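Contributing new records

If you add data, match the layout below exactly. Sequence lines come first and carry their own label; structure lines follow with theirs. Keep one chain per record. Anything else will be rejected by the validation script.
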Amino acid sequence: MHAPLQPIVMALLLTSSAIGAPVADGDYNGDGMVTAADATLLLAAAAGLRTPTVDEVARADLDGNGRLGVPDAQMLLRILVGLAPPLGARPLVPLPPLEVLAENQASKWGDVAGDSGRRTLYGVAGADVLYVAQWDTTPVRFGSVQVEGGLRAAGGELVRIEGELRREADGRVVITPTGAPILSAAPSLTAVLTPQLARAVAAVDLGPESYARYAEATSAVCRSSAWPSRVSEAFAVAHPRQAGLTPDGRLLVLEVRGPRLPPEVGIVFRYLRVVCVYDLATERLRRALVDVEGWVEE
């Protein structure tokens, strides 16, 4: 393999990313097989070391954005090393309707743990807390529950706890376990950040939903020819933040940050954000809320 491509290969293989329903099978050279030779050619095209033909683009444009780039190479490498099934084995999964909300309205923090008393509670593990979500509200709401005695978790695991839930005078929600918390590894989230979702999100003009002072500049970015590629590339390397698990343990709520939006200098930070409600049983999205996440650095 060409020496300059080696760091790209390692970076792509080590990145946990999503694989979705593609419009091509990765057979770059058209020999009827998908092999390491196709990956080498695709990596060269992604790195700008070769110019693909129209047919080569059609066969290797795995994210369906009309060009060859890092996300396409990433998908193909994951398939070749067994981290994802062959593209033909993954059917197109219908997306829920996108819910486009005003800036900073897709998610909010609050008390969502439910009634005090004897409870069986599910959540995503933090250091000494559970993160719990209420999925059927707009905005989607998250809250934290402190675990008395700690969790002894690395963070990110899905947790089931039986215990006594109470609310302290200072507003903290605390659960005292009556047995050892049950921890399980977080599921693979390859079904969430698909190229299909990236294309749908990239088609949204976030300008009208932005704060007035940023609306025009935000619309200009969202309408630009480069925006779909920026969203696709951001999704390909994104690590969804597991923001909370519903108290019944059925739905996982994730926050995904996309590309930065204007202004891109100074102390104001604004990003495309997608809040996903993921059904652990069916491995499908139940909701997808889109907004701009923004804040001012203090």
